[in-house]
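Record passed on here:
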Amino acid sequence: MPAPKTTPAQAQDVFRPVLLRGLTATVYALLSIFWVGADEKALSYSTAAFLVVTGVFMWQYVSVDSAPDKSRGPYALGAGLMLMAGIATIFATTTLWIGILAAFAFLASGLAELYVFFTLRTQFPPFRNQLVTGVVGVILAAAALLGLNMDAHAMFGLIGGGAIVLAVFVLIAGFGHRHEMKLPADAEGQETGGTPAAGTDAAN
C-alpha cells in the first residue's frame, strides 16, 4: 500500500509556517557566519530571537485545520518550551547558560517532532519532514551541551551550523509544499490546454 501523499489543502495550510521557519534558520546561520566579533550579548539576543521565532512558527504549523488533533498537544508543547527557553535566553549573560537553554529548547522541540513523525505521519503526511528536523534538534542539543566550555563565537558557530542544515532542509520542504499546492491547477491547465488543441486539429 503506497504511503499517503500530502494533499493540496494540507500543503496550503503548512506552506507559510514551514517557509518562514526555514527563512528564520537562514538568517541565524548567516549571522553566525558573518558576525565575526559576536560576544555573549550578541549570542544571547540572536539565539533568543531564533528560538522564539522558530517556536512561534512551529506552533502555527501544528495549529492548521488539517493537522490531526492528537498532534497538537505534544507538538505545541515542544514549540512552547522552545519559545519559553528563547525568552529566558534574553536574560542569559554567559555562554554556559545560553548553551544550556538552547540545548533544552532543541531537545524539547526535537523530541516533539520525532514523536509526531513516528506516530502520526500516516495521518498527516507533512509530518514526514519531522524526522530530519527532529534528529537535527536532538543532535544540536547534544552538541550544545558538549560545547558548554566554548566561547561565544564558537557557540554561535555551533548552533549556526545546525541552523544551516535546518535552513536547507526546511526550505526544500517549504518549496515542495508550494509545488504540491499548485498540482491541481497545473493538471487543470493541462486538461484545458489539451481540449482547444484537439478542437483545432478537428477543425483543420
